[in-house]
UniProtKB/TrEMBL annotation:
Residues 4-236 form the ABC transporter domain. SUPFAM superfamilies: P-loop containing nucleoside triphosphate hydrolases. It comes from the Bacteria. Signal peptide: none annotated. Keywords: ATP-binding, Cell membrane, Ion transport, Iron, Iron transport, Membrane, Nucleotide-binding, Transport. InterPro entries: AAA+_ATPase, ABC_SmlMolc_Importer, ABC_transporter-like_ATP-bd, ABC_transporter-like_CS, ABC_transpr_FbpC, P-loop_NTPase, Transp-assoc_OB_typ2. It comes from Labrys wisconsinensis. This is Iron(III) transport system ATP-binding protein. GO terms for molecular function: ATP binding. Belongs to the ABC transporter superfamily. It holds the Pfam family TOBE_2.
Amino acid sequence: MSFLELRSVTKRYGAVAALDGVDLTVAAGSRTAVVGPSGSGKTTLLRVVAGFEAPDAGGVTLEGEVLADARGAVPAHRRGIGVVAQDGALFPHLTIAENIGFGLERGDPGRAARIAELMAMVGLETAMLRRRPDELSGGQQQRVALARALARRPRLMLLDEPFSALDTGLRASTRKAVADLLSGAGIATILVTHDQAEALSFADQVAVMREGRLSQVGTPRELYLRPRDAMIAEFLGEAIILPARIAGGWAECALGRVGVDDRELSGAAEIMLRPEQVSLTPVPEGWAADAEPTPLGEVVDTDFAGAACTVVVALRGGGATPPLLLRRSSLEIPAVGTLVRLAVAGTAHVFRG
């Protein structure tokens, strides 16, 4: 039995279907990331699971307990689900200790010890307990919000873009700390985010939403390397999509003869490569380009961005093929106008119509 199960969940706001027959299962202790463009239904999905919204149709089950179906819904405060919002939603007039202990019984003799334990769990010093939220950094506030959500030992944790307001470096470290903490506590988690890299690094399972439906659900590696369509491919990262003719596990395309991950398909199709699969090597001066058997291109633009830089390459004889955007180390940027030899590593993914 799945830990959390959504079956044909539908939620409408007037004529708009925010959720349109969503099916999703979450394993115990796992981390699921829900990604998709704005307005795709991500936050509505989280609100239905939390109990802030009731589905118009379908059902939600947690550990075998029906939380919502056609007969009614269990109130949010009785679901045993923790929620961390984008801004943390801490009470500004309360101390950190009062924020964390908000959901704990005031007369409980173990209350102070539990608050101190939670501070340690999220990596904060107990000396901060007397402070107020505006005396903490953004990352510290998010950890306090997590501690408050953990206070009542939730069965499931819901994270609604909790790292989006943090600086890049702090965002990565906070995300890693939260992931390790929740995994160590064995708490299943659903993260809603618009950041593709965040979803891929945080989750065991990624679900891509589009217009109120789940377009594809799978492991991060599966969705990144074998997306169902071009939209999913480009949403989860930069992609090179080329028309090709397939036969016998090979594709003939603008990059030459490339192996594909589908040995059964034959005929015209679209293939996808990730930019990191395409390497480029400058052609030595005086080289006879016409005699070169591998695909050639010319560097037409570069964009320096620190460690990872973009090199734009126009294919020689590529016809209408758009220039390729390739990522390279800042130590390996060829000058604009350089003729380069292109090579593909691994196999291309084939989109089945």
